[in-house]
Amino acid sequence: MSRRTSRPRVPADPRITAASPCPCGLPAVYGDCCGRFHSGSAAAPTCEALMRSRYAAFVVRDAAYLLRTWHPGTRPPGVDFDPSMRWVRLEILDTTEGTAFHSTGTVTFRAHYTDDGRPDSLHEKSRFARHEGAWVYTTAVFVD
């Protein structure tokens, strides 16, 4: 997800705590799932795990994590969050490569959100690569 805006900074979602279900959709609590990647105590082992953690970073509005996991060649100077958007669900539709045995990979997903209360979704194929040993987001193609 490559959302870039120039809107005012929005505080983190107060509904998400370490004990909350992880927004990425896996059956784990945030602190044990994507929260450990956001805190820096672990690195995403696959490009799908990175995609899920980046989606969760949009949910909790963690701009630092999004920038840290963006390839330096395509990274924007900053990430702002649209205060009218609320990310509600992630569907992973397909993955290619992106394991410990690969240097690149893709994840096709649909991210559901509401914008001023109106439901919508983003369908994207994100590309990932290893940079200095870690998975990073490089670019995306919007599917529809």
Helix-strand layout with pairing:
Blueprint: H1 34-39, H2 47-60, H3 63-68, E1 85-97, E2 104-115, E3 118-131, E4 134-142
Antiparallel strand pairs: 1-2, 2-3, 3-4
3D architecture notes:
With about 140 residues, the chain is α+β, with helices and mostly antiparallel strands. It contains 3 helices and 4 strands, in the order αααββββ. It has helices at about 35-40, 45-60, 65-70, and strands spanning about 85-95, 105-115, 120-130, 135-140. Mean pLDDT is about 90; it is low at about 1-10.
Give unreliable regions as ranges: 2-11
How many strand units?
4
The SSE string, one letter per element, is: HHHEEEE
Portion of residues in helices? Answer: 10-25%
For the biggest sheet, the summary is: 4 strands, antiparallel
Average predicted confidence as pLDDT? 91
What is the overall number of helices?
A: 3
Q: Evaluate the radius of gyration.
A: 14 Å
Secondary-structure content class = alpha+beta
Q: Could you say which overall geometry the principal axes of the C-alpha atoms support?
A: globular
Strand order of the largest sheet: 1-2-3-4
Beta fraction = 25-35%
Distance between the termini: 13 Å
